[in-house]
């Protein structure tokens, strides 16, 4: 049987499963990971979490989720696949559905759909779909009759339809062969196995990932070697893993960070090469830049890039050879995504580890360096952005670790900022309180209710009449069990009209406003004279008329009899108001 343990697809687990954690009785039958995670529960429901910028969670919006939310309505689903910004699922009746990024025909929905779809939409009317595999731009699917179908974009030959065809926005059959046992889409290439055990590949070959021993892309399926005993295959971003009938492990393609597992962390391999001498490998999964595998004794092994803990080894050190993950010997299946992973152990619980920047682990915060039990319990999650209109996940603040600095100002001129409060959870978020420290104020009047995926703008103002450098905080209380009080540090400076920190008889506020217009207030600056003549009186400084009146004979310029130069006599005085001051 063909095994699909590839970077953006599904994991098969027993239908009768134990609970995912002590408080979570929901069990799963399949899992898919990419930059998001999708789970099919034992009852046929869908749970989703993680990145959602293209609506790929199927929740009707584009907000990421940090806990597992119900998706797909009340339909009964039997399998699911996740790719970069897309999700595919097959219902119990064999119908295929899709959501997410629809550009280049990736969803297979035809010319009429060119924008993102945030809810699952049916692909055609066929009801004999068996499995799907998703690459960077190409999608392939196999039907129950063994035929292979392709759609999406394939300028490097990813579709396998020939060099003259690079785009296809609806499913089209690849050739006439009905003997495909399975296939797997990598970044921009595809590997597949036929029923006779032969291995095939097509698409980009820049890193030797086609395994054919030569360079150059292939636009139609090309046979890899002459062996007929390949049983399992998995395609990563630019590398592949495979198992032969004797249980031996093979790899080829790019070897960045040691992801081929051959003990090296450099060079490429352009033909399948055995990794070690063992013959007890039972499952493989190639991620973006890392690799996972299971042996027949149930042990889990990992190698390759480990910058966010995707190897599950408890550290951030990359490995160039298979390294055992923990001591457990009951792993049943494993799945590598972009930079996080999922696995199933005996009893059916789902375990997740690696990157959690977008909540793809179903946890509010923090990466996981070791496999952690996934929780499908429904709960609210509060997140706050220091941007009024955040455009990416990095705009999300971390409670207690973020400081927002208000622009400097002078007495009488207020400054405010807009923060966006999100509910990135799966149930209603109740905002019960919002307070600030001295020198700041907030306009949120709780209680407020936010449905999953909803957001609200909260304005915080800096008091313009409390001069000096002030530090405070914004705290928003909610029913989020993990972060009941979300804290953002605040800072800001208001310059005083009476304080004179440097003792030059020019107020701090005056110096701030003059400096804002490019004047060097603590050194000679000819431009300052022009400003003072034209607008100085509006700043509360001595006007030109007053200066002339104070000079003998009303003269502003006086000739020095010794040097022959003319000098200007000015006297700057402290200001009590700069409200009307403008640039000259």
Task: Describe the overall structure.
- The protein is mainly beta and 584 residues long.
- Helix content is 4%, strand content 41%.
- It is built from 3 helices and 42 strands.
- The strands form 10 sheets. Strands 32, 33, 35, 37, 39 and 40 form a 6-stranded mixed beta sheet that branches.
- Strand 19 (230-235) and strand 20 (239-244) form a beta hairpin.
- The protein is elongated.
- Residues 1-25, 536-540 and 578-584 have low confidence and may be disordered.
Outline of the structure:
The chain has 584 residues and is mainly beta. The chain is built from three helices and 42 strands.
Instruction: Report the end-to-end length measured between terminal Cα atoms.
Output: 80 Å
Name the helicity range: under 10%
Give the overall shape, derived from the CA principal axes.
Answer: elongated
The strand count comes to: 42
Alpha-carbon Rg, integer: 32 Å
Overall mean pLDDT = 86
Q: Which structural class is indicated by helix and strand composition?
A: mainly beta
| Sheet with the most strands, sense and barrel status | 6 strands, mixed
Number of helices: 3
Question: What fraction strand?
Answer: 35-45%
Poorly predicted ranges: 1-25, 536-540, 578-584
Please give the structural blueprint.
Layout lengths: L2 E2 L5 E3 L15 E6 L2 E6 L4 E5 L14 E7 L5 E7 L2 E6 L4 E5 L16 E6 L6 E6 L3 E6 L4 E6 L13 E7 L6 E6 L3 E6 L4 E5 L14 E6 L6 E6 L3 E6 L4 E5 L15 E6 L6 E6 L3 E6 L4 E5 L14 E6 L6 E6 L3 E6 L4 E5 L13 E6 L8 E4 L17 E3 L3 E2 L4 E9 L5 E8 L3 E3 L5 E3 L4 E8 L5 E11 L6 E11 L12 H9 L9 H10 L8 H6 L7 E3 L6 E3 L16
Parallel strand pairs: 1-19, 32-40, 33-40
Antiparallel strand pairs: 2-3, 3-4, 4-5, 5-6, 7-8, 8-9, 9-10, 11-12, 12-13, 13-14, 15-16, 16-17, 17-18, 19-20, 20-21, 21-22, 23-24, 24-25, 25-26, 27-28, 28-29, 29-30, 31-34, 34-38, 35-37, 35-39, 36-38, 39-40, 41-42
């Amino acid at each position: 049987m063909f095994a699909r343990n590839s970077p953006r697809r599904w994991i098969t687990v027993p239908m009768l499963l134990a609970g995912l954690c002590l408080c979570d009785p929901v069990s799963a039958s399949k899992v898919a990971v990419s930059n998001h995670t999708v789970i099919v529960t034992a009852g046929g429901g869908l749970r989703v979490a993680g990145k959602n910028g293209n609506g790929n969670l199927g929740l009707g919006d584009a907000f990421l989720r940090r806990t597992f939310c119900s998706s797909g309505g009340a339909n009964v689903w039997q399998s699911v696949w996740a790719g970069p910004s897309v999700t595919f699922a097959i219902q119990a009746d064999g119908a295929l559905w899709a959501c997410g990024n629809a550009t280049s025909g990736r969803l297979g929905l035809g010319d009429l759909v060119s924008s993102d779809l945030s809810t699952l939409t049916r692909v055609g009317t066929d009801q004999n779909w068996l499995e799907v595999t998703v690459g960077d731009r190409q999608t392939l699917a196999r039907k129950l009759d063994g035929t292979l179908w392709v759609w999406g974009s394939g300028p490097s030959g990813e579709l396998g339809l020939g060099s003259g065809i690079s785009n296809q926005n609806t499913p089209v059959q690849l050739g006439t062969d009905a003997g495909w046992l399975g296939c797997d889409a990598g970044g921009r290439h595809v590997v597949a196995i036929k029923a006779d055990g032969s291995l095939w590949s097509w698409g980009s070959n820049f890193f030797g990932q086609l395994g054919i021993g030569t360079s150059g892309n292939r636009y139609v399926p090309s046979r890899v070697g002459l062996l007929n005993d390949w049983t399992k295959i998995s395609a990563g971003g630019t590398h592949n893993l495979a198992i032969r009938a004797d249980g031996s492990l093979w790899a080829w393609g790019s070897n960045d960070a040691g992801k081929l597992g051959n003990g090296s962390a450099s060079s490429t391999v352009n033909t399948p090469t055995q990794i070690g001498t063992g013959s007890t490998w039972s499952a493989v999964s190639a991620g973006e830049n890392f690799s996972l595998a299971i042996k027949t004794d149930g042990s889990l092994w990992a190698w390759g890039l480990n910058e966010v803990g995707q190897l599950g080894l408890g550290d951030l050190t990359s490995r160039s050879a298979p390294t055992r993950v923990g001591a457990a010997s009951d792993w049943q299946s494993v799945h590598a995504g972009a930079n996080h992973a999922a696995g199933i152990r005996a009893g059916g619980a789902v375990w997740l580890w690696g990157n959690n920047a977008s909540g793809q682990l179903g946890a509010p915060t923090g990466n996981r360096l070791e496999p952690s039990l996934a929780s499908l319990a429904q709960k609210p999650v509060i997140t706050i952005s220091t941007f009024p209109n955040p455009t990416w996940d990095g705009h999300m603040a971390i409670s207690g670790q973020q400081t927002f600095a208000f622009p400097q100002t002078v007495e009488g001129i207020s400054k405010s900022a807009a923060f966006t409060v999100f509910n990135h959870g799966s149930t209603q978020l109740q905002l019960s309180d919002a307070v600030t420290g001295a020198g700041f104020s907030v306009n949120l009047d709780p209680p407020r209710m936010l449905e999953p995926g909803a957001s609200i703008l909260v304005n915080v103002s800096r008091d313009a009449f409390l001069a000096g450098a002030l530090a405070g905080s914004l705290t928003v209380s909610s029913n989020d069990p993990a972060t009941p009080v979300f804290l953002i540090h605040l800072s800001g400076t208001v310059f005083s009209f009476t304080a004179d920190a440097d003792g030059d008889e020019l107020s701090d506020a005056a110096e701030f406003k003059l400096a804002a217009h490019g004047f060097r207030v603590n050194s000679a600056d000819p431009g300052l004279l022009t400003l003072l003549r034209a607008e100085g009186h509006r700043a509360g400084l001595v006007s030109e008329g007053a200066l002339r009146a104070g000079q003998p004979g009303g003269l502003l310029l006086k000739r020095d009899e010794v040097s022959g130069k003319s000098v200007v006599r000015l006297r700057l005085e402290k200001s009590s108001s700069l409200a009307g001051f403008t640039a000259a």
